[in-house]
């Protein structure tokens, strides 16, 4: 979906040795790697460990965009070790393989991709991926999909609280909300309106090495 934004600067990227990968079928310019064709042709057999196992867990696994907690917006280096640690995120907040996690966060940030997707893989939970968050459809989605865990950023909870009240708002299976940036007034309103949902507020920086969890509420 975003290839059109990259295409005009392809020559300069290629001059700098940057390889562009695109997920999705189509005709792409020379030098662009079409991942879908490679995935379709790939064997189901796992390659030997020495092919895919990193030599050093502190080596760079990937770069993730951060909006600049420690300066200007930039691509932050994420090591293999930090990626692997994200497997335990949902376990730390009290989720399990029986849970169904609702995820509508952008996957180009660490919260959505590593904590959300990788976190679900870590506990073997079901992940409900929503391309775009809808406050008016949220509780209908939760009922339809059997959602038990919601990963938020604070503004998403505010959008829900600001929706007009409607019947059935407490008729859901949501038991846990986990995320960052929930203001105290919205926190209180969320619980009063939607029921006894456990909230675990966390804070971490993509480019940092410390994470905080508010277990006590």
Task: Explain what the structure shows.
By secondary structure, the protein is an alpha/beta fold. The protein has two domains: 2-50, no CATH class; 87-213, Rossmann fold. 33% of the residues lie in helices and 22% in strands. The protein has helices at residues 3-6, 10-15, 35-41, 49-52, 80-85, 89-92, 110-123, 138-145, 154-161, 184-194, and strands at residues 20-22, 32-34, 60-66, 74-79, 100-103, 126-129, 149-153, 176-180, 198-204, 211-214. It has a six-stranded mixed sheet with strand order 6-5-7-8-9-10. A two-stranded parallel ribbon has the order 1-2. Helix 9 (154-161) crosses helix 10. The longest helix has 14 residues, at 110-123. It is globular. The model has no long low-confidence stretch (mean pLDDT 92). It catalyses: a very long-chain fatty acid + ATP + CoA = a very long-chain fatty acyl-CoA + AMP + diphosphate; tetracosanoate + ATP + CoA = tetracosanoyl-CoA + AMP + diphosphate. Belongs to the ATP-dependent AMP-binding enzyme family. InterPro entries: AMP-binding_CS (IPR020845), AMP-dep_synth/lig_dom (IPR000873), ANL_N_sf (IPR042099).
Features:
217 residues, alpha/beta, Rossmann fold, six-stranded mixed sheet, two-stranded parallel sheet, 10 helices, 33% helix, 22% strand, globular, membrane, ligase, AMP-dep_synth/lig_dom, long-chain fatty acid-CoA ligase activity
> What form results from the Cα inertia axes?
globular
Radius of gyration: 20 Å
Mean pLDDT: 92
Number of strands: 10
Strand count, sense and barrel status of the largest sheet are: 6 strands, mixed
Looking at CATH, which topology of the largest domain would you report? Rossmann fold
Q: Which quaternary structure do these chains form?
A: single chain
The top level CATH class name of the largest domain: Alpha Beta
Question: In percent terms, what proportion of residues is strand?
Answer: 15-25%
Q: From the 3D coordinates, which CATH architecture of the largest domain would you assign?
A: 3-Layer(aba) Sandwich
The total tally of domains equals: 2
Helix/strand order, N-terminal first: HHEEHHEEHHEHEHEHEHEE
Structural class: alpha/beta
Q: Taking strands numbered 1, 2, ... along the chain, how are they ordered across the largest sheet?
A: 6-5-7-8-9-10
The end-to-end distance, rounded to whole angstroms, is 39 Å
Note the total helix count: 10
Low-pLDDT regions: none
Helix content: 25-40%
């Amino acid at each position: 979906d975003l290839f059109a934004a990259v295409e005009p600067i392809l020559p300069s990227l290629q001059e700098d040795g940057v390889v562009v990968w695109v997920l999705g079928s189509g005709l792409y310019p020379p030098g662009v790697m079409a991942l879908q064709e490679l995935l379709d042709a790939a064997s189901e057999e796992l390659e030997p460990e020495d092919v895919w196992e990193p030599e050093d867990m502190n080596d760079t696994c990937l770069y993730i965009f951060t909006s600049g907690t420690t300066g200007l917006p930039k691509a932050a280096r994420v090591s293999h070790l930090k990626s692997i640690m994200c497997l335990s995120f949902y376990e730390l907040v009290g989720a399990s393989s029986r849970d169904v996690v609702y995820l509508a966060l952008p996957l180009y940030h660490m919260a959505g991709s590593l904590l959300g997707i990788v976190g679900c893989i870590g506990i073997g939970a079901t992940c409900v991926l929503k391309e775009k968050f809808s406050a008016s459809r949220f509780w209908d989605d939760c009922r339809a999909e059997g959602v038990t865990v919601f990963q938020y950023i604070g503004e998403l909870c505010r959008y829900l609280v600001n929706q007009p009240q409607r019947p059935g708002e407490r008729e859901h299976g949501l038991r846990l909300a986990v995320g960052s940036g929930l203001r105290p007034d919205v926190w209180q309103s969320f619980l009063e309106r939607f029921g006894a949902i456990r909230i675990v507020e966390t804070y971490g920086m993509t480019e940092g090495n410390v994470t905080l969890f508010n277990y006590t509420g």
